[in-house]
Amino acid sequence: MFGFIARAIDRLTAWVAAILCASLVVAVVVMLACIVLQVVMRYVVGKTLSWSEELAVLMFAWATLGGLALGVREGFHVRLDLLIGNLPDGARGWAERAVELLTASFGAFLLWSGTRFYDMTGGSVSAAIGYPIEFLHVLAPIAGGMICLFAIQRLIAGSADEDVPELAA
């Protein structure tokens, strides 16, 4: 039963990560295009665009938050290995689980607090483009949900892969 759940979560996270990777590529390309366009318009043409900076900021926000979630999935999120790397093998497995649990807790908090912020700022529009500001503010709870999902997947995969001694009853 546990193996079935682990495989289902692996498939789900692989699907979510593939969509996330594609969206991050699009966000970075759009962001860079907006910045280049803004520079060309300002210094070559002599006119500034009102919308390019705002769109670049929106894409930057997604690239940052989505990249954070992808970092959790791929295991390249920011952390210090100095302490964990010097622990004995049995303790290292438990420390890795603790890190994944803390990461999942951070994702759950980002999901919760981002949802509250989204609710508080509803109805506003952006200054230049006029898009609903919810487009920007929904990025935090989406990233938080993915961080939580990816950390739980790593926690389950680590439990299945590592030979961690059981606690004595």
Q: What does this 3D model show about the protein?
A:
With 169 residues, this protein is mostly helical. The chain has one domain (2-161). 77% of the residues lie in helices and 0% in strands. It contains six helices and no strands. It has helices at residues 2-45, 52-74, 82-85, 89-120, 134-137, 139-161. The longest helix has 44 residues, at 2-45. The radius of gyration is 20 Å and the shape is elongated. The two termini are 24 Å apart. Residues 31-157 form the Tripartite ATP-independent periplasmic transporters DctQ component domain. Belongs to the TRAP transporter small permease family. One of its GO terms (molecular function) is transmembrane transporter activity.
Give a nutshell description of this structure:
With 169 residues, the protein is mostly helical. It is built from 6 helices and no strands. 77% of the residues lie in helices and 0% in strands.
Topology:
Layout (H helix, E strand, L loop, with lengths): L1 H44 L6 H23 L7 H4 L3 H32 L13 H4 L1 H23 L8
For the sheet with most strands, the description reads: none
Overall number of structural domains: 1
- Assembly context of the chains: single chain
What is the tally of beta strands? 0
How helical, in percent, are the residues?
A: over 70%
- Helix/sheet category: mainly alpha
**Rough outline:** elongated
How many helical stretches? 6
Determine the N-to-C terminus distance.
Answer: 24 Å
Average pLDDT over all residues: 89
Order of helices and strands: HHHHHH
Q: Which residues sit in consecutive blocks of at least 5 with pLDDT less than 50?
A: 162-169
Please tell me how large the radius of gyration is: 20 Å
